[in-house]
Specification:
Elements lengths: L1 H7 L3 E3 L1 H11 L12 H11 L2 E2 L9 H9 L5 H10 L3 E5 L3 E5 L6 H7 L4 H7 L4 H14 L20 H8 L1 H4 L6 H11 L3 E7 L2 E6 H4 L1 H5 L5 H16 L1 E2 L1 H8 L4 H13 L4 E5 L8 E5 L3 H7 L7 E3 L10 H8 L21 E5 L2 E11 L4 E9 L7 H17 L4 E3 L20
Parallel strand pairs: 1-8, 13-14
Antiparallel strand pairs: 2-4, 3-4, 5-6, 7-9, 8-9, 10-11, 11-12, 12-13
């Protein structure tokens, strides 16, 4: 009996290929990309994924459009705008970064609002007595309606017209100059947004248009804040459902809504209540197997999951299946680092390199540049992943995938480097504990 009891509690083994299929299925990469598009299909996809990350970089296409188009042929940016700005089925706020999130979950962001701290960064920009400025900005928006940072002077008083230095800074993108360089009015708007008193009503040229949260999202704003226990259960259970298998740290990192220690406690309770099961996940890169948790029906998910679409796809650097660099290495044997914020001299591949996915394997990575004035997609360089044999068939599939992507971003022609098959990928700098 003792031996049988120990056997019953032995964690099941999930292979790396099974774990990556579970992840890809949960993140919408196994569904038929040729299915009928439209706002309903798009909302279903975003809810399945959990959120879609926003980003300012436009080397080829903004991250949110790229991520969604990778999963849904016929994706239209105006459908996303309608879901966000018109129907209010999506709202904009922070996960690990700025994202669009189904509004049905808005009450859980009240916990995040409550945690927004009055940091040294805020105090340096708003001074020792910031309340008058905050009150002035809130009153201005309450009385005059939705406002952008360019409408407000650094002292919180309204502008009549023109674009302030603050507006110019935002237009440049926080990723380029850093939001730590914002002037006081922009910092105040950001603080009011992050703490839940303002919401993003829309964007103009990708600059935020702020309004009172209760006017942007009246129904969601009126709902009560979930209890701590409800919030923890929601954060961990929805994360596990969207990852398939995960460690407690990965669950905590999915929404960036709970602490790792709290996620670990949830995992113990979830195993005891059969809401999750303990497993051991093997690795594709040769690293030791790792203990993790899986959704209870993981085997059935594998049986019913579609095979990966038979095509080559160029992924955004912000795609959720590669956002966690260590997980991408373990499950896909892909050692990928986003190098836009790495000094030029220290980059291994390039500023905005796209990983290339074929089925459930990464076969290459490429350095693109969209020349909008010429409608030209330039592939500056192409690297094959280790062990990939660039046959004629594979080259043809790659060309088809690049052509499909070029059409989506509005490029009529593509230029490719010479002899791409001769350029192998190099390993970037190994991930640090904080990567």
């Amino acid at each position: 009996m003792a031996a049988a009891s120990r056997s019953n509690h032995t964690p099941a083994v999930v292979s790396a290929s099974e774990a990556r299929r579970l992840l890809m299925d949960a993140q919408g990469l196994l569904a038929d990309p040729t299915r009928r598009p439209g706002p309903a299909a798009l909302y279903k996809l975003i809810q399945q994924m959990g959120f879609v990350q926003l980003d300012t970089i436009t080397i080829v296409e903004r991250a949110h459009h790229h991520i969604l188009a990778t999963r849904l042929d016929g994706y239209r940016p105006d459908h996303l705008e309608s879901l966000h700005h018109k129907d209010r089925r999506l709202f904009e706020h922070m996960t690990h970064d700025a994202s669009l999130i189904p509004t049905v979950w808005y009450p859980h962001w009240r916990h995040r609002f409550a945690r927004v701290a009055w940091t040294t960064w805020i105090s340096k920009r708003l001074g020792d007595n910031p309340q008058p400025m905050l009150d002035s900005i809130l009153a201005r928006i309450r009385d005059r309606g939705p406002s952008m940072s360019r409408h407000i002077e650094h002292n919180g008083h309204p502008r009549d017209s023109g674009i302030s230095a603050v507006g110019v800074e935002e237009a440049a993108g926080a990723g380029e100059r850093g939001w730590w360089e914002w002037r006081p009015s922009k910092a105040a708007l950001e603080f009011l947004w992050r703490s839940g008193r303002l919401a993003v009503a829309s964007r103009e040229n990708f600059q935020k248009v702020y309004d009172l949260a209760e006017r942007v999202l009246p129904e969601a704003h009126a709902r009560p804040m979930p209890t701590d226990a409800e919030h923890l259960d929601w954060a961990c259970s929805t994360a596990l459902d969207r990852l398939g298998v995960a460690t407690p740290a990965e669950l905590a990192a999915f929404w960036h809504a709970v602490k790792p220690a709290h996620a670990a406690a949830w995992c113990r309770d979830a195993v005891a209540s059969a809401a999750a099961i303990r497993v051991t996940v093997e690795s594709a890169d040769g690293s030791p197997p790792r203990p993790a948790l899986a959704v209870p029906d993981w085997r059935n998910r594998l049986k019913t999951a579609p095979l990966p679409p038979d095509r080559v796809r160029l992924l955004s650097p912000f795609d959720p299946i590669i956002r966690d660099r260590r997980r991408a290495l373990r499950l896909f044997n892909l050692d990928y680092r986003f190098e836009a914020f790495v000094p030029r001299a220290k980059r291994t591949h390039g500023y905005y390199v796209l990983p290339v996915l074929r089925g459930d394997r990464f076969i290459a990575r490429l350095d693109p540049k969209l020349h909008r004035d010429r409608a030209l997609l330039e592939i500056k360089k192409l690297w094959w992943e280790p062990g990939v044999n660039p046959t004629r068939r594979l080259l043809a599939e790659l060309d088809e995938g690049i052509t499909r992507f070029a059409k989506f971003i509005g490029a009529d022609q593509v230029s490719m480097p010479r002899n791409p098959a001769r350029t192998p990928a190099r390993a970037p700098t190994p991930p640090s504990p904080s990567t």
